[in-house]
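Why do we care about 3D structure at all? Because function follows from shape, and shape follows, mostly, from sequence. That is the central idea of this module. The next example makes it concrete: a single protein chain, its amino acid sequence, and then its structure expressed as tokens.
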Amino acid sequence: MRITGTGHASLRIDTDAGSILCDPWVNPAYFASWFPFPDNSLLDWETLGDCDYLYVSHLHRDHFDAEHLKRFVSKKATVLLPEFPTSEMRDELEALGFTRFLETKSDHVHELDGGLKIMIQALTSPTDGPIGDSSLWVEHNGVRILNQNDARPTDLTTYAELGHVHAHLLQFSGAIWYPMVYDLPQAAKTAFGKQKRDRQFDRTFRYIDDLKASHVVPIAGPPCFLDDELWQFNDIFGDEGNIFPDQWVFQQEYAKHGGTNSTVLLPGSVMTVTPDSVSTVHPVDVEEFFAHKREHLEEMRDRKRPIIEAAKASWRHPEVDVLKEMKRRIEPLLDESVYLAKGVGGPVRFDLVGYDGTSVESIVVDFPGKQVRQYADEKVRYRFRTERALIEHLLFIEEVDWVNSLFLSCRFTATRIGQYNEFVYSFFKCLSEERLQYAEGWFAEQKPDAEDIKLGDWIVQRRCPHLKADLTRFGIVDGNTLTCQLHGWKFDLPSGRCLTSVGHELRSRAAGASAPASAPAPASGDGAAAELS
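And the structure:
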């Protein structure tokens, strides 16, 4: 089996029974904020796109590049479609001209022509990616690989049961806006960023240890930031709180943990995997390339600047009445929302900076009041500040997912009072009838976990209230605090209170105490916390 690195989470898998192109991303994403690094735009995409199968793990725009898919990927390719709860991915691919689909069943091995076997595990929490994320397992002639990309399954048992994996490709770097955009002292940002950076590595190492593949390949990040306004987010300044460490930094951190079986794939690197060996040919020396990372970024910034400026020129839509359009789009969804609205629990304020860079219009999405209105000087717990042009553009294109556009762009600042609230972001990625109804139904169906386990001196429910991670594997007790290492969520053991986010409760008691007569009521919601994961 041959794996060609094509940048970020993208790769091409070639076997005697056919080729699979995965997650091709080339064009800037999220308001021209994210670019693939190393640059992959100069690869021979005409040849790479002439594939037998296409696999897109989910709809995040650093995985689903509509412009590139339309122009470069053969429409004769059969799409390996994850079993997602909505039809959005198929709808978008059909709009791009794809006509051949294999609708896979999650966790089911499908045998394709020539003995090629694939399995796609779909994750379907409302906050897994934009309504769904997935991983791809491939087997041919005794060689097995797992392309986990940036999916976060609670465990990898399903894959291990299919046989030893020879190459494990997975995310290790950040892909979020936290803590950089928050209105915090720099020292606090650095401390929170370091905590998140450490959690990212810890989670990756745990996945690696669980699967015990012959070889490990760090993929799916980090992006690079070429706009001058975002340049500081690149990990080139010696900031220990930067959440975007690159592949070479991963190599060094992995080595500290005894890891000796990893390989970095540059765009154009070719890895040949057999049951007994792995060999890789690179287009340039990998260590030398990352030793000159800043120079490569500066060259990319100069070359891509016209693309960024052209994108910025397209965002302004002065003809859009923002308040009127937000009311039209959002108020019907507020009327239908029960679980998400209750989870948010208060008004969310948007401060929109005008074209002149100084004037500000403040609009409130009032969840209890079920309305969108002008800000009325009331106290709010959650506030976002961004350019008016960005909201104009979202409304103009009728974007249904403001997380997979505005928030991931990092072109905003945020302030909050109290804990992180995942329901705020869950709602703003569900600005369509289909998404909202699915999310509301998912939250409504959540049940308390009835099984208990012993961790240290405490009896706790086996599954994390957040995303059902198995706490026998991911739970760490330190004094009176339990941390679920899958996403870094913390719980106060004496009370069961979640210390990380509102709306979650852990069933817990001291090991010598009697069990309560009845289990606590289910939490008001259960979804992935993007900022904390």
